[in-house]
Amino acid sequence: MNINKGLNLLKKAIYDITPFTTLDYKDNLSCIVWFISCNMRCQYCYNSNIIECKDGNYAIKDLFEFLEKRVGLLDAVVLSGGEATRHDLLPICKKIKSMGFKIKLDTNGTNLTLLKQLIENDYLDYIALDFKALEEDFQTITNSNLYDKFLETIKYLIKINFNFEVRTTLHADLITLKQLNKMIDQLYQLGYKNNFYIQNFLNVDNYADLKEPKNSIDKELLSNKLNILWRN
C-alpha cells in the first residue's frame, strides 16, 4: 500500500521548519512545522509573513525527508502555522505517524470535520486550542465570524475527553480582567478541567500595529475556577 497515495508531495505548504524545541510539546523533543495561510487575522498576530504567504518555502516531500533523518532523535512533530487545518493533514499525519513520531496540533479549532477525522484515525496525540476571545469580542479581535466553529470544537474535545489544552494570547487593551474572568468561567461551565494557559502579548510587528498595553491585569483578581499557567 502506497502511504503517499493522494498526497501532493510537491505542494509548498510549509513556510519553515524549526528543527528542535523542548518547549512547544511538554516532555517531548520536537520539531515545529509552520504551515502557511490562516482564516483569521488576529490583531496581535506577529506571523503575517506566514499567513499571507501564497507559496511556502518547503514542499511536503521536504518535510518527510527532514523527518527521515530525525527518526530516533525526535519524539514528536508540532503542526503549527498559520492554521495547519487549512491543509490536507490526513495523509501528512498518516505518514508522520508511520515514522514513529507523536503529533501535536496547534489550532484555532475552526475545522472540526478534519479534527474528527484525525482523532478517529488516532493521528493526533495532543491539541493546543486557541481561545481567542468571548463571542462578543471575537469579530473585533480575530477579524472573523468563526466563534461558533471554535465553540463546537471545544465542546467536542471535552465530550470525548481528548488530551488538549486551551490557551489565550493576552493584550490587556483588548481583553480586560472582567472579560478574562468571563472566559475562565465559560471554560469551567463547559466542563474544561485542564490547565488554562495565558500567553503574554509579544511587542513585535503585528496586524493592528499594537504596542505594549496601557492597561494591566492583576493576577490576584483572576478566577480560581481553573488552574492558570502563564507563558512568556
Automatic annotation (TrEMBL):
Pfam families: Radical_SAM (PF04055). The keyword Iron applies. Keywords: Iron, Iron-sulfur, Metal-binding, S-adenosyl-L-methionine. GO terms for molecular function: catalytic activity; iron-sulfur cluster binding; metal ion binding. CDD domains: Radical_SAM. Residues 23-232 form the Radical SAM core domain. Its cofactor is [4Fe-4S] cluster. This is Anaerobic ribonucleoside-triphosphate reductase activating protein.
